[in-house]
Specification:
This protein is an alpha/beta fold. It has four helices and six strands, in the order E-H-E-E-E-H-E-H-E-H. Helix 1 crosses helix 4. It binds flavin mononucleotide.
Amino acid sequence: MEMLIVCPKDRGNTYQVCRYAAEQLGCSLGIIARGDALDLKEYETVLLASGIYGKKIHESLAHWITELPGDLKNRFYLFTTSLSPGDYQHARRQVQQLLEQRGLKLEEDHMNCFGKNFLFFRLCHPNDADRRNVLAWVKQISSTV
Ligand SMILES: Cc1cc2nc3c(=O)[nH]c(=O)nc-3n(C[C@H](O)[C@H](O)[C@H](O)COP(=O)(O)O)c2cc1C
């Protein structure tokens, strides 16, 4: 399976779930904040992963997308963690537009799971069930031809 998961940072809810999926599936996990060299040409599928902040994806991931070369052949998917069950739709449109500006396309299939923050909300998330759900979804998109 040739999949790269791209996370903005190496801590937090999104990273925790992505690290689990990457370990279980043996796929690569690239962290933007760590300055990981990410050669997308080595991968068939790229899973963009982010928490949602003010209904948008992490700004370092957004910036990274704006610098992608336009001649890529990868399939791009989006995974988000958020407090609200609906805000991922806004973030999804943002990513769709950013990719389209590079001549790239976002696949329809999307996964969002709840992620706690520093206040009182969603304190039990992401939990084991969330991690298993995300893993099953990542397996499914990685096997889609
Ligand atoms: C500054 C800030 C803004 C946020 N804005 C939103 C938001 O607009 N909608 C939402 O559903 N969750 C929002 N959240 C919650 C995060 O999306 C959620 O906790 C997510 O799991 C964070 O991911 P991370 O731990 O990988 O950074 C916000 C959290 C923070 C800290």
